[in-house]
Each structure stands twice: as C-alpha cells, then as structure tokens.
Write a structure and sequence with these properties.
The protein is an alpha/beta fold. 33% of the residues lie in helices and 19% in strands. It is built from eight helices and eleven strands. Helix 1 packs across helix 5, helix 2 packs parallel to helix 3 and helix 6 runs parallel beside helix 8. The protein is globular. The relative contact order is 0.14. The model has no long low-confidence stretch (mean pLDDT 93).
Length: 280
C-alpha cells in the first residue's frame, strides 16, 4: 500500500454533479478527502477510508451502453475485489421503481420487488444499477449500503436535470415554455439535502438500501404554479392527466436524521429572493 496518509473519505466520481459537491462539503467539514481521477491507479494502492461511489452515467446511458455498464458495475466489481475501504455507499436511483408503473396507495419502500425487463432498452440503466446494488450489498463483506436518489436539482450553472435546467432558464428569462406535459410527476430533492444524506450514511456506516428522496410526488403543473406566483409566465407544451405514482418511503432517511425539504418550499424561497433574477 502507498505511504500516503489515509483519507477519511474517498469520493469516486468527484467530477460529477453530486460527487463534486459532496467532496467540497466533506473538505469544508475538515475531512481528508481523496478524489481519484478516472484511471488513477492509487484507487487500488492506498486505503480509501469511507468510500462514496458516485461514478455513473444518467442522461446519455442509452448512447453509451458499454460505458454505463462499466461505470455502474465493472469498476465497482474491481473496487470490491481489490480496493481497501472501511465502508462503501453506492449511488443508485429511485428510477428503479419506474418499472412498477403507475400506481397509488402506500409509499414504495426499499424492500419493494422490482420488475425489470432485459428486452427493454430503457431498462439498461435500471438493470446495471440493480446489479451494482446487488454487488454492493452482497459482495462487500457487510460493509456496503445503497443510496437510491430521486430527481436531484440545483440552480447553479451547469446543474443537470429537468428542474435544474428549468431554474437556470428562469434566471435568464421571465417567459418560459416547457417542453413537457402538465401531469408528469416526480419526487424532487435538492442537492444540499442529498449531500446531507450521503454524509450521514457514510459517517454512520449504514447498511441496506435508503431512499434519498423527499417522499412527495409533485407534478409539472404544480411546479408551474410556484413560478407563476412569483411573477414568471410558464406554459407547458402539453396537457395531460396527473400520473398516479406512490411516493417513496423516507422513513429510513429520517432515521439518519435527514429530512429533505419539500420542493415547492425550496422554490418559494429561491424565487422570492435574488438567487434567481430574470430581467423584466
């Protein structure tokens, strides 16, 4: 092993949206943080401390299927086999619940059985994440946990995702035409709340799967109402019935002392201040 001082944390995928903010937050809290670049041999030559596995593809998974599988499964398998770590948190997604289709009723728990179809190209992402989860939970000698993230958003420049892009546009223009349907619903969680959840999972060496989500499904029409209340004009390209999707259970997240803020409350605070200011 390398003679370098052991880090408190390693963030794999620290160049990405979540990993970059997580590494900065951990350093601000006084921790030693190792952020290996892609191909860094040090990943297998030094102690890693508590490892948060943020590497992965989201938006372009369909165009890069082999890179997706390598990031979600291949590199993870090698880390579990060869690297020296105290504990690992693997980032997955509540998109795995999309396979359950539209439904109402009780919140979806982390123990829900998934329905994945290898014939569906869309399920490449889900299948690779599910396999990564399986490896992390069953091949880490009891030192692994899975964080299933819902739709993460932020308003900083370059933040990816539907609501993030909406917010960045709102900082430039007052009249918005959103190319989406009014009835589409999602569970949104702000990036800062995700960072709090991941830090808590790593610090407490959590086990099992945790939904990192707000626990509330909010429609595009409901989001538009918040923007309109603060002076933006919002037009959704298509009208549709509101989707019927059960919320994610967030009881395990609450046990970690983390409660994600409701998206409409965060938007109210953001749009009502100078955080976003489009010219009139």
């Amino acid at each position: 092993m390398s003679g370098l001082p052991a880090p408190s944390y390693t963030v794999l995928g620290a160049g990405g949206f979540v990993g970059r903010r997580l590494a900065a937050s951990l350093r601000a809290a006084g921790h030693r943080v190792y952020t290996p670049a892609r191909g860094d041999a040090g990943l297998f030559e030094r102690p890693l401390g508590r490892l948060v596995y943020c590497a992965g593809l989201t938006a372009d998974y369909a165009a890069r299927p082999f890179d997706t599988v390598q990031a979600h499964v291949g590199l993870l398998a090698r880390v579990l086999q060869e690297a020296s770590f105290e504990h690992i948190v693997y980032l997955s997604s509540t998109r795995l619940y999309d396979s359950l289709g539209e439904h109402g009723g009780a919140p979806v728990t982390e123990d829900a059985a998934l329905l994945l179809d290898p014939r569906q190209g869309r399920h490449l992402y889900d299948l690779s994440k599910a396999l990564g989860e399986n490896l992390c939970l069953n091949a880490s000698a009891g030192r692994g946990a899975v964080a299933r993230l819902s739709c993460v958003y932020d308003w900083t420049a370059g933040a990816p995702g539907f609501l993030s892009e909406w917010l960045q546009r709102a900082g430039r223009e007052k009249d918005l035409c959103i190319d989406s349907a009014s009835g589409i619903v999602r569970d949104y969680i702000h990036l800062d709340d995700v960072i709090a959840a991941l830090a808590a999972m790593a610090a407490r060496r959590s086990a099992g799967i945790v939904n990192v989500a707000s626990g509330e499904q909010v429609s595009n029409a409901e989001l538009a109402e918040v923007f309109q209340r603060h002076g933006w004009s919002v037009r959704l390209a298509r009208d549709s019935a509101r989707e019927r999707r059960a919320p994610c259970s967030v009881s395990r997240l609450a046990q970690l002392g983390v409660a994600a803020r409701p998206v409409r409350a965060v938007l109210d605070a953001c749009l009502g201040t100078e955080v976003l200011h489009a010219p009139d």
